[in-house]
Amino acid sequence: MTTVLETEGLERRFGKLLAVDDVTVSIESEDITSIIGPNGAGKTTFYNLLSGRLDPTDGVARLQPRDSDEMVTVSGREPYEVNRLGLSRAFQINNVFDGLTVSENLRIARISKNDRTLDLRAVARDDPALTEQVNEVLEMTGLQSVADTVCENLSHGDKRKVEIALALGTDPSVVLLDEPTAGMNATETEKMVELVEDLDNQTDITFVLTEHDMDVVLGISDRILVLDNGELIADGTPDEVMANERVREAYLGGEP
Ligand SMILES: Nc1ncnc2c1ncn2[C@@H]1O[C@H](COP(=O)(O)OP(=O)(O)OP(=O)(O)O)[C@@H](O)[C@H]1O
Q1: What is the mean pLDDT of residues 80-84?
Q2: What is the pTM of this model?
Q3: N or C: which end of the chain has fewer CB within 10 A?
Q4: 91-102 pLDDT, tens per residue?
Q5: Do 78 and 116 reside in the same domain of the chain?
Q6: Average pLDDT in the 76-100 region?
Q7: From the alpha carbon of 227, which atom of ligand 1 is closest?
Q8: How are strands ordered across the β-sheet holding 231-236?
């Protein structure tokens, strides 16, 4: 097992509210890990702490950057720094430029990985290495046929694929997905699950997701973390977590 992301006593208070309460956890590169919990459980806050959008009020989060075997503290760093270290986040924070094509969006993501200040001339510049990297991501995500489509004309399913492709474009070691199947119909949901599983098999990227659809969670996850009132109340395989009494009570209202 290789730990790629870990937290130690991670805590975030908003005034008196403990949104993330003393969470210590290691995420392993071999697993697709889902983070679940009722509304307000602290999932988004936890993601914000991992990705540098929020600083913890106590504790620490660490990441193993790509091509490194040392853990680096992410807490206290800016989101762009955390991203450059190898953690990418897709969804909720919608960073697709609707008026640009899929390819153009991917070129921007790739260029912004290298330079914090985006030089828009570089997006249009003939750069064979950049084109090759973009083509690779288009192929991995099955977006070749819509590469030249302006994003506002994409189907909902393809638009969400673009958000994953943008996350992949920065060469991450870990990708955090925010509810990848939200708003999707059954067919789109199935395709999204297949895509994440394929990417997980084909790459050495570690995928972590939050998701409300329990069928998706149980189908895709090797491991599930359950948050409730900011606290990590369960951590295990889908079978272990579903058998956990506290999870049933907190998350499923004690349903058999
Ligand atoms: N910026 C903030 N200021 C004050 N309270 C906040 C802030 N952000 C989140 N909270 C509170 O922290 C708690 C955890 O919220 P969070 O959004 O992390 O939960 P969540 O599990 O992502 O919920 P959901 O599934 O509804 O998105 C909630 O009680 C929320 O109201």
Answers
A1: 89
A2: 0.91
A3: C
A4: 654 678 899 999
A5: no
A6: 84
A7: 21
A8: 87-90, 174-178, 206-210, 33-36, 223-228, 231-236
